[in-house]
Amino acid sequence: MTRRDIGIGDLEVATGDGELKTYALGSCVAVVVWDAAIKAGGMIHIALPEARINPEKAADKPGYFADTGLAVLFDGMARLGASRKTSWVKVIGGASFFDTKNMFDVGRRNLAAVKEFLWNAGFAVAAEDVGGAKSRTVALSLSTGELIISNGSQRWSL
Questions:
Q1: Which of 14, 28, 138, 149 is flagged as catalytic?
Q2: Does residue 139 form part of some domain?
């Protein structure tokens, strides 16, 4: 089985007998899509909500931002032949660690941007594991659609 690691600001869509995996989601958010009919999946590791703060970075790495990266992710899934009728979307991350006074609240802002995009695009969230103060690692099996989340000491399915 081939594993494709998704770094911060990266995204990938793929089919086959492999795994998409991203690590150490803190305030970052992963959006995962899987289409059961064609056994295709996609994953993005979003760092910030809006590309307007750095258009050059958004042009180079659209997955770094929710507003630019999610469009690329869903376009990629559509190119593989994914359908809304046979797909699910799951959201993971958006934690808050050191921002005890909510001065920046990046995790919550990332989640708001993701949910706004999904709502406007007509996608429902099938499940989520968001917020809190824990880091998460996420792995998607492309052949089964199983989504495993771990945080070092625990492991669970979503």
A1: 28
A2: no
